[in-house]
Amino acid sequence: MGRYILKRLWRALITLIVISMLIFVIARVTGDPIAYLAPEDASEQELAQVRARLGLDKPIYVQYAFYVGDALRGDFGNSLRYNRPAFEMVLQRLPATIQLSLIAFIVSTILGIMMGVLAALRRDTWIDGALRLLAVLGQSAPSFWIGILAIMIFGVHLQWLPTSGRMGPEYLILPSLTLALFSMASVMRLTRSAMLETQTQEYVKFLRAKGVPESQIIFKHMLRNALVPVLAVLGIQLSHLVGGTVIIEIVFNWPGVGRLMVEALLNSDLPLIQAGVMLIAISVVLVNLLVDLSYGLVDPRIRIE
Amino acid sequence: MTDTNAQPVIRVEDLYVSLRRRRDGATIRAVNGVNFSVGRGRTLGIVGESGCGKSTAAMALVRLLPKSAEVRGAIHFDGRDLATESQGALRRIRGRKIAMIFQDPMVALDPLFTVGDQLAEPLREHLDLDGEALHARQVELLQAVGISSPETRLKQYPHQMSGGMLQRIVGAIAIACNPELLIADEPTTALDPTAQAGYLELLERLSETYGLALIVVTHDMGVVSRICHDVMVMYAGQTVEYGPVRAIFDQPRHPYTQALLASIPHAVEPGACLPTIEGQPPDLAALPPGCPFAARCPKVVDRCRTEAPPPVEFAGGQRALCWRADER
Amino acid sequence: MTIPILEVRDLKKYYAASAPFFHRGERPVVRAVDGVSFTIPEGETFGLIGESGCGKTTTVRTLLGLEKVTSGTIRFAGEEVQDADQAGWRRYRSSVQAVFQDPYSSLSPRMRVWEIIAEPLITAGKMSKADIKTRVAELLEVVGLPNDAGERFPHEFSGGQRQRVAIARGLSPQPRLLILDEPVSALDVSIRAQILNLLQALQDKFGLSYLLISHDLDIVAHMCRNIAVMYLGRIVETGTVAQVRDNPQHPYAQALFSAVLPPHPDKIKPRIRLTGPQPSPLNPPSGCRFRTRCPVVQPICAEIEPALEQTRAGSRAACLFAPRASQEEIDR
Q: Do B263 and C266 lie within an 8 Å CB cutoff?
């Protein structure tokens, strides 16, 4: 297990380094930063001074080292538009996004697994059919459309729930459920097929032959085995969720990083984009790491080499 | 029947099983009037080709069958008729009085739980063992099947063990609650020759040591000749021949048994043409009148196609379902 | 002396195992096949036997080019093929075809039978459409399938018939060697006999050579002239069926054949039991690879790696204690 953890940590670190490089490189190729940092009528000499001050005259790897050093201290520079530290601005918005995606993650995982188990146990009945239809809808309908539909039904027509902003917990319900839908559908479909797969395993037959009660066979043995492949995709699901927040935050006017990023993109606010992408990447990598480690808890074949 | 035990452990009379075929909803007559019994320490081989109903007949004893299955007949075991018992009552018999093992011991255990955990399940469920008593019994069982350092093994997972070890663990789970009957369904089909021989020896030893009645379902005449006392040859859901293993190997009476024995490569000169059975078994959803083997039988006469043959009894308890069984 | 159809010399196939984390030095190596030599004379059947993990499947995979040879030579009809150029290799691969255990998974479920059989011919691209149709019809007849079988899909057939389709496909590029990897293991006894008979008949008709892999020793004995017993990546004994089966000299071969199920209850023989697990090919024992499970092991077995030597019984065995043939016996 120790080796497994070490390997995962190592991989997470590499991922972060690669992401930081990508962000760095993309920032460089999108244009000469001097062009918008220096006054338009600056002379060559003044430009050189600005370059020297910012370290832009140094070789690229030295620049990268500076960039990493700054980033480690949380310094991504100031937002071009708001002239406030970009890192701080993103950090301020981060809790809202984490809250939204985490709740969507939990909801989609728990509901997805429960529905998947139910569909597998009631295979080929109307329950199975209804759940599968829901899954297909959840995976094929675009989330902005679902979101607008939800606003129209629950917000405008029924007036049950608020549809915009982030005040009380009730403000979370529509955006998080809309966000969860796609992921829930994937988890459900995967759980269903994994459960059906385990049903045909020899050890399930042997458990019945041992006289183990059916409930114990289903919830102790089959479910745990079915969770192994489900766990493997949870990390991917989470990345989808975080990506999905951008649209959901706009549709529901949710004050998170996603909306901030869209604004930053529209304004070509490079430092803000860099800080945002880096922080989102770090949180995704961290959660993925947690999912990977929990994999080892469920499956002894990974825990024990 | 042939053995000296007056009271067999299990006695099956006129067993019929029908199943619903998923593909087209047709009713399959998987087992059609089967009779047999097994005594203490005796081994019965149920042999036949795929789809002949051998596994269905064996699994019908404890009703481990698809939901659509209908079982008729009498299954006398332990003073009651299992054919009339509820699923709940049968669950309490499974693993306790009647144990079962299946094809490949490598996949018989849940990979996510320890060996000890899976050995404890029947002991907890059926015998209410717990704590010290449970642990002592676990150790005792592993020792009984010849596993050294049982304490360590109990804490290990299936993937940490060799095939031979898993065979013995499955054996230990089967005998955990001192059953009276052990059903082995194709126990060696997926195994290498030495693993196969080892597994059969283990089954034989368990049956002898604990006086188990043993039913071995197989398609392999070699398995039958190796460990069985009696053999039941099935074709299209019927027992076409039944009797002591020597009698059947020495003098098979039914043309199907004769053909099965003849098609083993051992029976002919190397490289020579092997005798075959042409054609296919009949569709169990539309059994023909008369003898189900008639279409493929080399000795078929007109009567076979219209009238079902009666069982013909021979000395020593051998019987065959054939109009021409007593011809030589 | 005629040129044998297949001559394998000192074939090795090593795999790099996954290295431990932060591992220094050489990566561990799995020696799946470690110096295997055998020869198949034209028109004969050669049997390769041994238990799971002995390397017989890897041997087949290297012969089919599914794995790259680590070292050693494969000579087909006198021509070295392991390093052949693309054209040479393509020529070789159309002359060597394979039939596997499970005809269901080796036949594409979405193709009609005639497409499956014609596929190698279409790929070769040398025949006209009409010629291909004729050839497929011919092949269907040769393997004993009805003429209309070509229009149907694999799932419409029984196991035995599917194996006939697989054989027809194997035959379609007119190979000279057919590799039969557990060809009848998935079939019922009566069907098994039909397929074995068919294979024999095809061999007589077309002068085919076979390499047969099976764990059913009865079938190997029935079909083969010469056999080789493999253990942990090596051949431990080889000779004619009569020599190796009836009078095996290597303790592993003895144990293996003693495990064969008796044809009659009166012929149950005591079995030679092997103790302990099969060692990993990652780290095979020093000296003789069988020594950790050998019932007659001696201290010297850990030091000397025995080579295949002519035994007095006629076979060649890799055991220090197998009675060797004297020089005169070898000359004779």
A: no
